[in-house]
Automatic annotation (TrEMBL):
<protein>
    <submittedName>
        <fullName>Amidophosphoribosyltransferase</fullName>
    </submittedName>
</protein>
<keyword id="KW-0808">Transferase</keyword>
<keyword id="KW-0315">Glutamine amidotransferase</keyword>
<dbReference type="GO" id="GO:0016757">
    <property type="term" value="F:glycosyltransferase activity"/>
</dbReference>
<keyword id="KW-0328">Glycosyltransferase</keyword>
<dbReference type="InterPro" id="IPR000836">
    <property type="entry name" value="PRTase_dom"/>
</dbReference>
<dbReference type="InterPro" id="IPR029055">
    <property type="entry name" value="Ntn_hydrolases_N"/>
</dbReference>
<dbReference type="InterPro" id="IPR017932">
    <property type="entry name" value="GATase_2_dom"/>
</dbReference>
<feature type="domain" description="Glutamine amidotransferase type-2">
    <location>
        <begin position="8"/>
        <end position="279"/>
    </location>
</feature>
<dbReference type="InterPro" id="IPR029057">
    <property type="entry name" value="PRTase-like"/>
</dbReference>
Length: 609
């Protein structure tokens, strides 16, 4: 319902046959581009603010371009960048990126991929990723302490410079090694190009980072790599056959693009890198943590990687993002489809209670479009208990209305009409309406649009169902949910605290957060969880309804949220639930949520002066 800008999409292809092989077999020099285009379009849901691509051509002569990049902004960015493609750009290595900004920074400057140029092929680095780093200030300090001066303060550019610096060191290591072997001139260059060990570069780069990421890159000498964060927060999948190897953010993208079954697509494990050498050799290398990806226990420690690292003594616990399963990834993945159905079905008992078991006088529906699969699960669950179920498509989502009108009041009026209803789809003042969405985040769309239009149908009662639990905490790993006050659950909780005169709890939590920030980061805990502790889910639900209910609305409203237990039962292999529980997988998450509460209290205090 409320669009969340989230994560990004990545796509990579390494052709393992000569270019003329593909032209002879498939009749086009653009085979690699065609596959990259399809992979990017199939992930358009992951980024609509910008797109970019890069290619590397092997065996080009000095004086001719061998590394190409195109970037564009806007929803039509994919079409735009591919319209600029020429035969000269066809190479063996391809990389694509789709961007959603989660930091508030926009403009072509911030669109991936990022490119670091050098006259040595092996020192050229092109980087893109699906990531958000929580400790970029520490990495910035590390770089500047070495005498570097990054041009831009942002995790993408700083990562490019840090990894580029490590790539330079790898090239210099090989230069020394070549000289010791008695090589000279172009033979040294060839030796470097043929022997780059990207694992060395990745191990000395990624050890510095706290965050969720899939980092992808190409070098001018023909290295390709993708590395996943050691907590497994962000996803990546790859497919290989005798012609190519490809990687994407979602499994169905590879299944559709290359027409293969799911068992041919492999998930990259937490902390693991897929590395394709210049000569086409492929290897999987553990960069950080261990190799037991489907375990809730520690995956390993960073302590052995060096004293200069800012992530020493951090434990990596498998924390694959559950929100990927609820909302972010496309539901065409076979596992995600079944998980979303289970999320809907598991809500059946709570829904039956909310309608007093009166299925005969209840219409079931959903908010389009991402909640549709959970809706199927919900109705299946009701059928198992009751038999016949009355279902209707009550809500329609119109194309996005262009809010070109400058006056805020008129702009808000247009925004309220993004959704419409099926008039006559239920019996007025007789039928209950149960309507499911994948999540309720800020509540703005409910208050300004959904509840108002549903009330026009005059239902006896509206039961608003969320297939996810209450979202109580910000995300710091690639989703635009950074401030506590954005969440209707947090605002409702603070309203309950005020009503009941519990401001000592707020003061105690504020001071606890301040103390926590003085600790070593690996010892920090999330102190904000204390503000929710005195209240039941139902108490917070009731306050959310009170806050979001339009003043002139007639129908009663009841909220039903997924339980934490239900979430884990439906998505057992994705235990990352920090949005709902506050259990952040990384030290940076705990640090930032404590700081967020401090910022909230201090801004409120300042506003009241």
């Amino acid at each position: 319902m409320e669009q969340l800008k989230h994560e990004c999409g990545v796509a990579m292809i390494r052709l393992l046959k000569p270019l003329d092989y593909f032209e002879k077999k498939y009749g086009t020099w653009a085979y690699g581009f065609n596959k990259l285009y399809l992979m990017m379009e199939k992930q358009h849901n992951r980024g609509q603010e910008g797109a970019g691509l890069a290619t590397v051509c092997l065996n080009k002569q000095p004086g001719t371009e061998y590394m190409f990049r195109e970037k564009a902004e806007g929803k039509n960015a994919i079409t735009e960048i591919f319209s600029r493609v020429t035969e000269e750009m066809a190479g063996e290595l391809y990389m694509g990126h789709l961007r959603y900004s989660t930091t508030g920074k926009s403009g072509l400057t911030f669109v991936h991929p990022f490119l670091r140029r050098n006259n040595w092929r092996a020192k050229n680095l092109c980087l893109c990723g699906n990531f958000n780093m929580t400790n970029i200030d520490e990495v910035f300090d590390f770089l500047t302490a070495q005498g570097q001066s990054p041009r831009i303060y942002g995790d993408s550019y700083i990562t490019l410079e840090l990894m580029g610096h490590r790539l330079d060191r790898e090239v210099e290591r090989l230069f020394t090694e070549a000289k010791e072997k008695g090589l000279e001139g172009i033979d040294i260059t060839n030796y470097i190009d043929d022997n780059v060990e990207m694992a060395n570069v990745l191990k000395t780069t990624m050890i510095h980072y706290d965050g969720g990421y899939v980092m992808c890159g190409l070098t001018g000498s023909g290295e390709m790599f993708a590395v996943r964060d050691p907590w497994g927060i962000r996803p990546a999948f790859f497919y290989r056959d005798e012609e190519l190897i490809a990687l994407a953010s979602e499994r169905p993208v590879l299944q559709t693009t290359f027409d293969v079954d799911r068992d041919k697509v492999v998930e990259l494990k937490p902390g693991q890198a897929l590395i394709v050498h210049k000569n086409g050799d492929i290897k999987l290398e553990q960069i950080l943590g261990g190799n037991t990806a489907q375990s809730n226990g520690p995956l390993g420690s960073a302590a052995s990687q060096g004293e200069e690292c800012s992530m020493v003594n951090v434990q990596y616990k498998y924390s694959a993002c559950s929100f990927e399963r609820i909302y972010f990834s496309r539901g065409s993945d076979c596992d995600i489809y079944q998980e979303r159905k289970r999320l809907g079905e598991q809500l059946t008992p709570a829904i039956m209670k909310a309608i007093d078991g009166d299925v005969d006088h209840t219409v079931f529906s959903y908010i389009p479009n991402t909640a549709e699969v959970a809706y199927y699960g919900m109705t299946d669950g009701v059928r198992k208990l009751h038999g016949d179920v009355r279902t209707e498509k009550v809500v329609w989502k119109d194309i996005k209305l262009r809010t070109f009108i400058s006056a805020n009041t008129e702009r808000n009026d247009l925004a309220a009409h993004v959704y419409d209803i099926s008039y006559g789809s239920l019996t007025p003042n007789v039928d209950n309406l149960v309507i499911i969405d994948d999540s309720i985040v800020r509540g703005t769309t409910l208050k300004e649009s959904i509840f108002k239009i549903l009330d026009r149908l005059h239902p006896k009662r509206i039961v608003m169902v969320s297939s996810s639990p209450q979202i109580r905490y910000p995300d710091y790993y690639g989703i635009d949910m950074a401030r506590l006050e954005e969440f209707c659950a947090f605002r409702a909780t603070m309203a309950l605290i005020e009503e009941r005169g519990m401001w000592q709890l707020v003061n105690d939590t504020y001071l606890a957060c301040k103390r926590e920030l003085q600790k070593p980061k690996e010892e920090m805990e999330n102190c904000v969880r204390a503000v929710y502790a005195p209240f039941t889910v139902e108490e917070i639900n009731n306050k959310i309804v009170e806050m979001l209910r339009p003043a002139d609305m007639q129908a009663p409203i009841e909220l039903v949220f997924q339980s934490i237990e239900g979430l884990h039962e439906a998505c057992p292999n994705h235990p990352g639930d920090w949005y709902f529980t506050g259990h952040y997988p990384t030290p940076g998450g705990n640090r930032l949520v404590n700081q967020a509460f401090i910022n909230y209290i201090e801004s409120k205090t300042s506003a009241n002066k």
